[in-house]
Design a protein that fits this description.
2 domains, 47% helix, single chain
Length: 113
């Protein structure tokens, strides 16, 4: 997928400028722009997101969304309840100890008070 190829390239060179034509690394064409040093497809492949990378990213996206839903409660003119403080901390800690795809896919989400 082109997004994964782009992410892999930017892991190697965060300033890389390129145009990618095609969706799969093995068949795509990469045009390197603005003097960007070309990166070999084998080096790009080594940085492609794994199944775990994608699973943990999904957990982080959901966690961030749930935190955003309660951000207004954490403003300086609001008093955060103990329950809400505990909930928000549990969300922030949700990725701690996740090391497998199975764990990422089976997260137990805290209940919003």
């Amino acid at each position: 997928m082109i997004i994964d190829i782009t992410k892999a390239i930017l892991k190697i060179n965060p300033n890389a400028k390129m145009t990618i034509r095609g969706q799969e690394l093995d068949t795509c064409t990469i045009e390197w722009l603005e003097g960007t040093t070309p990166i070999s497809k084998s080096d790009i492949q080594a940085q492609m997101p794994t199944e775990f990378d994608m699973a943990i990213e999904e957990v982080r996206l959901k966690r961030n969304s749930l935190l955003a839903e309660t951000d207004y409660l954490a403003l300086s003119d609001q008093t955060l309840s103990t329950e809400m403080t505990t909930y928000r901390q549990a969300l922030r800690d949700i990725t701690n100890g996740i090391t497998t795809v199975e764990q990422a896919n089976n997260v137990t989400w805290p209940t919003k008070p």
